[in-house]
Amino acid sequence: MNEQAMLPDYNTFGHSELFLKLASLSNKYFNKSICSKCFDQYDLKQVKCGECASKDLLIRPISFDSKDIEIFQRDIAKRLQSSYVLTPDNFIKMLLIYMRVQSGIPVLIMGETGCGKTSLIKFLCQKILDEDLEIFRIHAGVTADIIINKMNAYIKKVQAYTDEEKRLWIFFDEFNTTTNIGLLKEIMCERTLLGEPLPNKMVFLGACNPRRQKTAQLIQNDNAHVGLRKNRYEMQKLLWAGTDQRLLYTVVPMPETMLEYIWDYGYLNETTELDYIKTMLLRCKYLSNFEVIFNLVIQLLFQSQNHFRQIEDASSVSLRDIDRFCRLYNWFLDSICQRGPQENLDNPPDTYIYRASFIALMLCYYFRLHSDELKDVYVKKIHTILVEKIPSIAKVPNYLISYILHREQKWLIHDRMEVPANTARNRALCDNIFVLLACIVNRIPLFLCGKPGSSKSSAVQILMSNLKGKKSKDSYFQTLPELVAVSFHGSQNCTSESIIKVFERAAKSVGV
Ligand SMILES: Nc1ncnc2c1ncn2[C@@H]1O[C@H](COP(=O)(O)OP(=O)(O)OP(=O)(O)O)[C@@H](O)[C@H]1O
Ligand SMILES: [Mg+2]
């Protein structure tokens, strides 16, 4: 065997090659039947998935021949790519996690928000190894009793395992948000629960955000905030009661023992992030068929991420923004194709791809900026990159805003939404409705901030009255889902329980 085959350079591997390597950690994609929707594994003879509602038959390799197994695994890799992409960075991280788990060391990962901690552990556990995984999402309202009850339930579950090899992975997500962190330390680091030893078949993992202070820039942004300005003393009394508002994440200090196990992911550096961007963009429909646009979008996203890091903080942007971009792009492209001539449905021209990409870009970055000056600076920066790659754009005045954004808003809002009498379709209202619509239909959480009276609630009401599913007046809105509002007024005195109740109410109203 030559050196190249024995010690390959993993940095040159793509998603499928990395997947083939990881698949060899377990038997999941070897001698099992797999559901093509939820990727649960079954006995080779089983034909239907018992877990999800999928009606598709289970899939498996044609034979145990190594060629057939590779074909099968490549097929699975392709299917998985739409939800999670492998890069050399997360490949190495997964191997290191696996090594620690095999050695019986708790895995505690720390990193900035959105650097991929939760999704990495879920992917490794469910899609590669198929171990039993319980995700315990910790938050400030989780009491010691809740933790003990949950742990007792897990112990029961593990005791019922008959298979020697089987293990239960317990993942404490955001574990430093509760003041009961001491109890979690006992469970994860000492492997006891109130002094009683825990079964060996339990594997503990945890993910958390770092305890660090806001940078001067962020504090400045907080102060230059939208909304009414209170005097500083009053603000301090109001905001700093209970939690330390100088902290970037609301987290508690960690016990020393835990610190020894902590593994700091920090945030993704530029080159790693570029890798993720390139691979994640393969999810965008038809985008990679157009090489020029594909490279342009990579460049635009990369520069936008850097721009936000410069004006705000390292944690301001993350893979979440890239994920959001892909979802919005796909939705807008579908929507644009639907409006155009039939023959373009399966063969969108490049103008559609441009439009969908730029609208998604504006939604991900432009609308987040809170002042007109910042918006101007950002648009200018993007425009310079655009003109460099596509010189013809320079001829269109205000290309991004007037040509792309306002045209889309006209189509979605001015031409088809009914607004109450005497309501002016001004900029603020249109922007609010547009962002709300795009986020709601794509299930992207949205916080609309603005000075009192800047059309926030009215935008929500207008949207509600127009999006009524099949009962909507407009034929395009009939193709969108119906919206049902569940409202909740937040205040300083809200508790975790009251928030949980809102979600229960919401679940009831949709009949879950
Ligand atoms: N390798 C990947 N391929 C595709 N998408 C990814 C990948 N890694 C992360 N993402 C996307 O990035 C988003 C954020 O990831 P994740 O939830 O794992 O972050 P996190 O580190 O747990 O953040 P937090 O500290 O806020 O909990 C997810 O929506 C996920 O879809
Ligand atoms: Mg997370």
Automatic annotation (TrEMBL):
<dbReference type="GO" id="GO:0004842">
    <property type="term" value="F:ubiquitin-protein transferase activity"/>
</dbReference>
<dbReference type="InterPro" id="IPR031248">
    <property type="entry name" value="RNF213"/>
</dbReference>
<dbReference type="InterPro" id="IPR027417">
    <property type="entry name" value="P-loop_NTPase"/>
</dbReference>
<dbReference type="GO" id="GO:0016887">
    <property type="term" value="F:ATP hydrolysis activity"/>
</dbReference>
<dbReference type="Pfam" id="PF12775">
    <property type="entry name" value="AAA_7"/>
</dbReference>
<protein>
    <recommendedName>
        <fullName>AAA+ ATPase domain-containing protein</fullName>
    </recommendedName>
</protein>
